[in-house]
Amino acid sequence: MRHLDDELRKAFGREEPSPDFVDRVMQRVTAQSPTAQAKPGWRRRFFLMFEPPLIRWAAIGAAALLLIVIGVIGYQKSRQTDDRQATRQQEKTPAPEQQEQQPINPPEKVAPPDKDARPRLVNRKPKARVNQDRLIAAREERREGLEAKRKLLLALQVTSFTLNEAQRIVREDRAGRE
Amino acid sequence: MEKETSERLEEALAKAAGGDHLAFARIVREHQGMVFSLAYHFLRDRALAEELSQEVFLHLHQNLSSIKSPAHLTFWLRKVTGHRCIDQSRRQKVRPQVSLEDMPEPVAAISTSDPMLSEKLRRMVDSLPEKARMVVVLRYTEDMEPSEIARALDMPLNTVKSHLRRSLAMLREKLSRCYGEVV
Q1: Chain A neighbours among B 105-164 (CB < 8 Å)?
Q2: Does residue A20 form part of some domain?
Q3: CB B56 within 8 A of CB B35
Q4: Which tens digits make up the pLDDT trace of B105-146?
Q5: I need a surface site. Which of A11, A17, B6, B74 has the fewest CB within 10 A?
Q6: ipTM for the assembly
Q7: Domain residue ranges of chain B, discontinuous segments joined by +
Q8: CATH number of B99-183
Q9: What is the model's pTM?
Q10: Which site among B114, B121, B167, B176 would you substitute to test the A interface, given the most A Cβ atoms closer than 10 Å to its Cβ?
């Protein structure tokens, strides 16, 4: 004769989980703690907008934009100066076709055949000068264009460097918080 | 001694509710055996029982503020574990359910010192329907009264009593066939 109750109590005695059970529970608790999981309310999210990383990002963005705008304006100004110089030079010197047409149009002003060496020389001299001036102007224009391009690239380089630096700071800041 | 333990637990509860992880670890250590035993005897799978027990404690961590006393904590843990075990068993449905009547009879009478008796009893209980099984597990693992079981499982007291009566009658009948008279 045996007692079923006793046998059942023996069969359903206490069992212990694995020794690291508490540690595993605590790991999961830490991973799911409210500070790590909770979604902030709209008020908190609004104030989060003004926390350092975002302000820093906004300042960096504004600085980068400013630098780009300054670069573009500088480049446009240099282009305008070049255009004005070129226009002024064009106004000073007549067009080459006009110079060529001048001796041809009035036939009575054409020098006599025995003195043709001199007028030819006179006609050639301004044409060479014009070509030379145009060459110089083109060189000047090219030089200034390159200068403006160099400035723009420098501005972009500075912006890129600033952005990288800011990104690094924000990453470090985030890592520090975590 | 028991009063001292209760006071320590009460203190740990207050601290844990305030966000003290060490205090919560103390609570887990204190109750892990109870939660795991219930889950293991019901599910009969150590890995699954550990996973379920962890989930119960995670749930407790999220609801610490609603726990009023150590006695309430014990009741809460039993209740949550019981319900989760039943849900898990219903979801799983992997293990084929064999009714107690369909269990094979032991081929020969087993001696009184049979070390396999407990295992046989566990297997018999294992074949009971979910609610009846949980009633038996709570009754014999935690030594709970039918009224306590009824509150923990949100069941009418008479249903608990009837589950216990029917389950024990079947177990008694099965066992008496091989052991002789069983009380």
Answers
A1: 112, 117-119, 121-122, 125, 136-137, 139-141, 143
A2: no
A3: yes
A4: 444 444 444 567 788 888 889 889 999 999 999 999 999 999
A5: B6
A6: 0.80
A7: 1-95, 99-183
A8: 1.10.10.10
A9: 0.55
A10: B121
